[in-house]
Design brief:
2 copies of one chain form a homodimer. By secondary structure, chain A is α/β, with parallel strands linked by helices. Chain A has helices at 4-9, 30-38, 41-46, 48-61, 76-79, 99-103, 115-127, 139-148, 156-164, 166-190, 207-222, 240-243, 259-266, 285-299, 318-337; strands spanning 67-68, 84-86, 90-92, 132-137, 194-199, 229-233, 250-252, 271-276, 304-308. Chain A is globular.
């Protein structure tokens, strides 16, 4: 068992920087596209054998140090009674816009929330030689889709809802916090060895609004989970002073923001994860090596997990991913064993 | 002539906080929609009588302290040989992806760049009792559309281009800087009394990439303009240490980011402009007053121009805009004359 990823999260001094890639099971892989030709996205998420298969695909190609459950942040909401499509992003049939809408949202027991995920995790734990990361969407990011109804540049309908209906909004964040905490606990019970909470849309709020609605819900979710925890808030440098108060082992850092600055704010005790710009994978190998090297030189021997600064893009060349993995292995060994 | 806006930009102690609204001539106004029923967006921009008419519309309804030329950041690119549609955002027929594409971009003399804009400005100066703001898009934001081809969540094609084709990218930014400097100078020569440079997509870059490509171009544009200058970079708190080096009188601050923090970084000598969340205009009057008051209390008697933190939205109720204007007048007088 390769435990480098877990040891990095526990703050141990490690001999090489562990590496995984957000959305590593995905459309850039021909073997993934082959599976998707046969089943739609939601069926794939809900069919444990297939979800386990695509989770394992990138591990067969690349020397990665962690696997992440193949699923979607929106799938636990199916159990809560939300009607969803993917086109290709999530589209909510009846967006929540009032306290009545929010009251109808069901918060089930842990084993009733997306039970297919627990089966997928059990299959994966039998197969995997690296740690398995469970994950969920943070309440703000789930609320963004639930209220707006679909993806948006700046989720203005959600923001209006927070200003105009604070009571409904608080109820929504409370329910999503309970749902998400139970969902992650179920993943841990099934075998997930770490969890990552994705707050892809954190950046749309001011610090004041983030502290009022999003932050307490994130804190509740992380309060009672007994595995290493990573919080990934995207485009959120203006929220770091607030995010700093979240009790986690690791922070995901997106490509826009600076690992140096993150180190200054979050301190040496925390593990930082990131942050190669996914767009770099579409440049040439010289550029890839240069930027991977930059990141590893910046992080030196501090607690760091190498990753992209956002999910890998569907048109990233597979051979560039291989090359990135080689570079990270080689350079980080030089730095950490030098 | 109401010179409050210009006096605020010159750092004078003023008796009331001046106020204008980004995209104040726009779809939330029924009289604007009436004009748009007759002509398409590009025709409207290119027809001086009509562009002047819609520029004046919000001034007839609200007690605003500045007018802003009605146009689009992409219109000067028409003179550069770029084929454009609006659908509703800009769509570039042949996106620029190579050095050959960039070499074809024409940089004309000042009076050849969007000459219709100069005629619009001359009409406006005869009619207006408040200062007229000229504007342009910053090179990064123009490049975002030129390379990506259309709006995007994170302009990944542009980012790949910057990594993969730095020489072509530098040539593009140089050309856009010259074009934009000439275009703004022409607006000033025609009568614009201040200029604002919109860098709506600044936030997609890391500080390193911003310093390499975007910042030098912005600095070149502002170097020789003899009217007060405002730079509005959106979602750019992580870039403020770089942006601080730009020589302007005012900085636009978007709704996500903190006026307090901006004051700390940019200092007391600069005028800050912003930053009410446009989504607040869709909440009730109590919420609008509360947040307008918060901003004015934060800024106290320091150099400040009230504005939204981004363009007003098409579904903002007109009566809420009136109410906001009243609140800003009343509260800022109390603070500044108290």
């Amino acid at each position: 068992m390769n435990t480098l990823f877990l040891r990095a999260l526990s703050g141990e001094v490690i001999e090489r920087t562990p590496l995984w890639i957000m959305r590593q099971a995905g459309r850039y892989l021909p073997e993934y596209r082959a599976v998707r030709e046969k089943v739609d996205f939601l069926t794939l998420c809900q069919t444990p054998d297939l979800a386990a298969e695509v989770t394992l695909q990138p591990l067969r190609r690349f020397n990665l140090d962690a696997a992440i459950l193949f699923s979607d942040i929106m799938t636990p909401l199916l159990s809560a009674g939300v009607q969803l499509e993917f086109n290709p992003g999530p589209v909510v049939q009846a967006p929540l816009r009032s306290i009545n809408d929010v009251e109808k949202l069901r918060v089930l027991e842990p084993d009733e929330i997306a039970p297919f995920v627990n089966s997928t995790i059990k299959i994966l734990r039998r197969e995997l030689k690296v740690p398995l990361i469970g994950f969920a969407g943070a309440p703000l990011t789930l609320a963004a889709y639930l209220v707006q109804g679909k993806g948006s540049k700046d989720f203005s309908v959600l923001r209006s809802f927070l200003y105009q209906e604070p009571q409904a909004a608080h109820l929504l964040f409370d329910k999503l916090a309970v749902l998400t905490a139970r969902y992650l606990q179920a993943q841990i019970d099934a075998g997930a060895q770490a969890v990552q909470l994705f707050d892809s849309w954190a950046g749309i709020l001011s610090e004041e609004m983030y502290r009022k609605f999003a932050l307490p819900a994130v804190q509740k979710i992380f309060a009672n989970l007994a595995v290493p925890r990573i919080y990934f808030a995207q485009d959120a440098a203006h929220l770091w002073p607030a995010i700093k108060s979240i009790d986690v082992e690791g922070y995901g850092i997106d490509w826009r923001t600076s690992l140096n600055e993150a180190r200054n704010i979050f301190g040496n005790q925390k593990t930082l994860q990131g942050n190669l710009d996914p767009a770099i994978l579409k440049a040439n190998k010289h550029v890839i090596r240069h930027h991977a090297d930059n990141i590893l030189q910046t992080m030196q021997k501090t607690s760091h997990i190498f990753n992209l600064g956002h999910g890998i893009e569907p048109d990233a060349p597979v051979e560039h991913v291989s090359y990135l993995v080689e570079c990270v292995h080689e350079i980080s060994k030089q730095i950490r064993q030098g």
